[in-house]
Amino acid sequence: MSSQPCKKESLVPASTDQIEDDVCTSRANCNDSLRAGLVIRRTGGGCSLGFTARSSGVRWALTAGHCGSGTMTNWSTAGTPIGPLNPVNAIDSGPVDASAIQVTNAGYAADTLGRIAISGSTWVPVKGRAHTMSFIWVGDVVCVSARYAAPATSGNPCGVVTKTSDAAVRGLTRYEGYDPCPGDSGGGVYWLPSSGRRYAFGLHSRSTAGCNTTPRKAWFSALPRFWPGLAYDLA
Predict the structure, then answer these.
(1) Which fold has domain 7-20+127-224?
(2) Are residues 114 and 108 in contact, defined by beta-carbon separation less than 8 angstroms?
(3) Which domain of life is it from (predicted)?
């Protein structure tokens, strides 16, 4: 059965999806497992982790394409290595702003669950993802799980899709109602229907002013725009 839900999902009564607790204390201090919204770092920079996926037996951790440095870099979270980002796996052009870190840490590579950070110590499962652009609708409520360096934010703020392809901004998908902050690039953007389940939609790319100021507009790179062969981790 396909993991892609019918859009009537938005009419389903509230879900009982469990919020899981673990030993993490913050998005910057969490090496228990990979999940959308963690702080990730390389020498000279840092971003937010998006969703995880697999291809040909290799696990990948996604973030924004512009987070790369143009050279081979090693990424980590909370001081624990994730793996390398080869510049050939970073795209920042047109509607695509995505890069794929190869997960070579054996503990992370063996994990099969797709997770979204809700706070420093809790996460929820990824239940599906947008397979095509026709799955993303204007009016969809979307939330972003990212590092929130300034100001500190509890939970994941949400907005509403207002353009699925914004010609004025490279064809990226626009959402309004929240203006992410520096360091939030690459964070996981997900659809949140009334059922309470979460479906991966894309990776945060950019915002209007840069830290929750008016006008609150932001853009994400939609998953159907890049690497169609990826099998996203679900839970």
Answers:
(1) Thrombin, subunit H (2.40.10)
(2) no
(3) Bacteria
